């Protein structure tokens, strides 16, 4: 195997793609078999409340299938008032992939922080290549995002995604992994809060009948007058086996159970083969 890394400062503005690194595919490799991402937050002394919702993508001539490939980072959030200390541990998140590559081609890794910019931080990316021939039909990946629901116990749309269709007969036939990221943003007046979200999939892009509902990460916290409230590692990965119809649409919905944060971001990633 060959492993390459890149690093960049966190984007200064939300909802804008920023390059992390441009990789050149080394000689003698045939695929990327793992991608890893992380975001280390540095909130600054004046920070009151922030959500952490990083997403990543890979694109460029070095990829021999769909470009871009899109992935969720580790989501979280932090609220602090007057006195307190806390950490948001956005540890490295890892995806198993099977992406064919072209020697000498370039792959640009990019990052985007959804909805809110972080005061400061460091973004990192790792690509692992090897000499094995890809075995999956494809390793395409997409995501959709929305504001976290502000009314409890009501289903609401996150996004509608169109399943990719390729002309080479390599269209996706199933979802093999589902990623759900939740970034709560409670505000300085928080006293006590539970965060529990579920997601469901439906639509013509799904190749089977029956319910497809999944749990997002769950958390609970309490903050007194002088204190801090932290949510870490709020991206949940599900290994699944859901048949899909290329060109069809998948409706992604969310429901926030029992209590709602002041605000927040949810994103759902689909990894195909």
Task: Annotate the secondary structure layout.
Layout: E1 2-9, E2 18-24, E3 31-42, E4 49-52, E5 54-59, E6 69-72, E7 76-81, E8 93-100, E9 106-113, E10 120-130, E11 141-147, E12 156-162, E13 174-185, E14 192-202, E15 213-222, E16 227-231, E17 235-243, E18 249-256, E19 263-272
Antiparallel strand pairs: 1-10, 2-9, 3-8, 3-10, 4-7, 5-6, 5-9, 7-16, 11-19, 12-18, 13-17, 13-19, 14-15, 14-18
Q: If you compute it from the alpha carbons, what radius of gyration comes out, rounded to the nearest whole angstrom?
A: 19 Å
Principal-axes geometry comes out as globular
Strand order of the largest sheet: 1-10-3-8
Helix content: under 10%
Largest sheet: 4 strands, antiparallel
Low-confidence stretches: none
Give the strand tally: 19
Task: Provide a count of the helices.
Answer: 0
Estimated share of beta-strand residues: over 45%
What class, by secondary structure content? Answer: mainly beta
Mean pLDDT: 89
Order of helices and strands: EEEEEEEEEEEEEEEEEEE
Distance from N terminus to C terminus (CA atoms, Å) equals: 22 Å
Brief summary:
The chain has 273 residues and is an all-beta fold. The protein has strands at 2-9, 18-24, 31-42, 49-52, 54-59, 69-72, 76-81, 93-100, 106-113, 120-130, 141-147, 156-162, 174-185, 192-202, 213-222, 227-231, 235-243, 249-256, 263-272.
């Amino acid at each position: 195997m060959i492993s390459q890394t890149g690093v960049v400062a966190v984007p200064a503005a939300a909802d804008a793609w920023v390059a992390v690194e441009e990789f050149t595919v080394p000689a003698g490799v045939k695929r990327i078999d793992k991608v890893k991402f992380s975001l280390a937050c540095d909130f600054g002394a004046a920070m009151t409340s922030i959500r952490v919702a990083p997403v990543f993508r890979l694109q460029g001539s070095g990829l021999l299938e769909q470009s871009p490939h899109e992935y969720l980072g580790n989501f979280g959030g932090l609220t602090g008032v007057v006195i307190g200390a806390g950490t948001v541990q956005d540890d490295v998140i890892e995806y198993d992939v099977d992406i064919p590559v072209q020697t000498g081609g370039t792959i640009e890794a990019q990052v985007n922080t959804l909805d809110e910019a972080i005061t400061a931080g460091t973004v990192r990316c790792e690509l692992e290549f090897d000499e094995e021939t890809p075995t999956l039909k494809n390793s395409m990946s997409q995501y959709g995002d929305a504001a976290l629901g502000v009314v409890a116990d009501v289903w609401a749309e996150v996004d509608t995604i169109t399943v990719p269709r390729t002309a080479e007969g390599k269209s996706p036939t199933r979802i093999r992994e589902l990623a759900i990221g939740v970034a709560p943003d409670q505000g300085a007046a928080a006293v006590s809060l539970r965060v529990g979200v579920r997601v469901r999939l439906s639509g013509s892009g799904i190749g089977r009948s029956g319910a497809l509902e999944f749990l997002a990460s769950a958390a609970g916290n309490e903050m007194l007058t002088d204190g801090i409230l932290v949510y870490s590692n709020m991206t949940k990965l599900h290994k699944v086996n859901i048949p899909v119809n290329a060109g069809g649409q998948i409706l992604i919905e969310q429901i926030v159970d029992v209590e709602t944060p002041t605000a927040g971001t949810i994103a759902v990633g689909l990894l195909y083969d």
